Amino acid sequence: MFSDDISIDFAEAICNSDNIDTLVEDYYFGTDTHYIDIVMNRCDKAKCLRDYQNLFLQITDTYSRQQYHLACIGLFAIADGLMADISTMKKSTSFEKRIKSIEQKMADKIELDTIDRRTFFIHLQFDSLGDNLSNSVFGFSDFTRDEPNELNRHWLLHGRTHKTYSRYDFLKILLWIDQLVFLDSIINITSGGDDK
Description:
This protein has helices spanning about 10-15, 20-30, 35-45, 55-65, 70-85, 95-110, 115-130, 155, 165-185.
């Protein structure tokens, strides 16, 4: 999931790319870390992450020490909490129900005639995730089968994973959190979200 405002040139590069993962990884980690630093700073300052501030600081410290496995576990915990907060479904553990709730809140709050590129792109990705949850990091996994190559929340948080995690795995979850932070700023403007 890509969370920055997307330029027309970068959108064309995505459309023409044979490997979007490489393109996104180069964008955030290429010649410098400017863009990843911006995302981490944006998340660090987000009002909706205040209750998770201590954990987020520990995660970014762990990331800086290249301990990506631990950092990914922490980011998934924050993403899970943010989804509960934004959807206002504190008792639900169903990703599908919380995603649908957030999608409905987006539909209620976002006017299509005033939508900007970033909001549009995030809306598309979020809508696609809701339709393809089983093929995402939140998809259910059968632990009697081989571990998937893709990043998977179930395998990681339920202690079944045996793979090595990378900074790109960390980035994927961080961008998901960045999207949730952005959506919270639209959905919950009057109830503590960041200013638009």
